[in-house]
What does this fold into?
Amino acid sequence: MNLSLPQSRFLRMPKGFSALYFTQLFSTISFAVLFATLLLYMKEQVHLSTTEANLITGVYFAYNFALHLLSGYLGGRFFSYRALVVNGIIFQLVGCLILAHGTMTSLYWGLAFMLIGTGTMVTCLNMLLSQLFQPEEIQKRQTAFLWNYSSMNIGFILGFTLAGYYQLHVNYTLLFLITAANNILALGILCTQWKQLRDHNTFISRANHKERWGRYAVGISIVLLLTPLLHTLLQHARISDALVLTTGVVMVVTLLVIALRHTGAERKKLFAFFILLMSAQIFWMIYQLAPMSLTLFAVDNVKLQLWNFSIAPGWIQNINSVTIALGAPLLALFFAWLRRKKQSSVSLPLQYSSGLTLSSLGLLILPIGIALGHHGYMAFGWLFLTYVLQAIAELLISPIGYAMVGQLVPMRWQSLYMGTLLLNTGVAAVLASFFSNYAVGTSGSSNPLITNPSYSHAFSQLGWWTLGVALILLLLTPLINRFINSSSSSSRKETLGGGHFSDSSIAQ
It folds into this structure.
């Protein structure tokens, strides 16, 4: 098979972008399959109780995103970014093969390998993408991250579609074997542009030959020790939750200390990043409800039929992915048009507050749908609309958050901040698991007539809290914009909302 990709100008981007685009796409399928399937896999294949399955799901996704922080530290120091991506793909492949066995023993080992794979790969893919651009190429970098986010969601679409099909046929062995094969494809694609993806100005790229191999030895040792550690921690949920939350608090303090150690414009930009990072926390908590309480709610409380067609639980996640895959390039084109025709762009805090508002509306409509349900079952259309609103919110917050690292953070801290950005989602997974238990209630029943009041109250509460955060962020927008635009560089074009986000390179 010829895996060669265009060597330049793919989507009018630099050399190396095409390999990252398709590597992201195919490597994402493994995570998508687990995202849509893990809870049901543990109940139907491994025969765990709902409570146990919920607990492990929350811990898994918490560690998945918490490990992004570790990869932000390992990448560029003990591995080159491209080498750590290769490591992640190989671990994903092995993890899928282990999970295909479908036993209790293979469950924990398979999840441990998958965690190393997905947890160490995403940050380095983002760093590889970021280093393709110069610091002043703000608009083109943002365009690249939007396209890259679109490719990730095409991977999610393929993974969710695959998962849903085999959920209906209850054949998880074949599902994970097919998923493993996608990692081989991703690895081959990455290698086609290996030379274009070398590290730029990292610790390991500046090291001499002897020091470089010493760093590789340390990095490999860390990864090998981490695998059995994760295998153990996955079996102790309370300890795991405490570790993730503690790490999150430590990183909050660390980011504040780093900001205070800087002065002038750099300090203000770091504080702007910090405020936006904290405001996005509640969004990511809602996002992490999808593989937990929203999955259970869909299975037990929603009529999963549309025009007499049965809807697999995994296919519901495709609503989010299709919306993002189509919406990312449309959003990029909209920003390009706004900048070209109106000589203005949308500020970062305005984007974040808009995303939070949409996310809150996605939750607040669910109690209405529950109230209008028939015999306790909510019509699928309400859940469909929730996922669409959540996807648009994600598009406004997540990819721009990645690009924000290159815009606001000094070069030597960018790897750490990229990992912290993704750790934020791990902390949100723990909080989402707590909220999911709260939303399900204490009845222990799957009867929608019994559980609907609990779900309705919980969704309403979280929706109003999110709307409150959006309003606070909107009030802080002028201050945050002053922080973002605090450099002494030349004059800037007028910005809608005062700050800076634009995207014109896609239309070049």
Summary: The two ends are 33 Å apart (CA to CA).
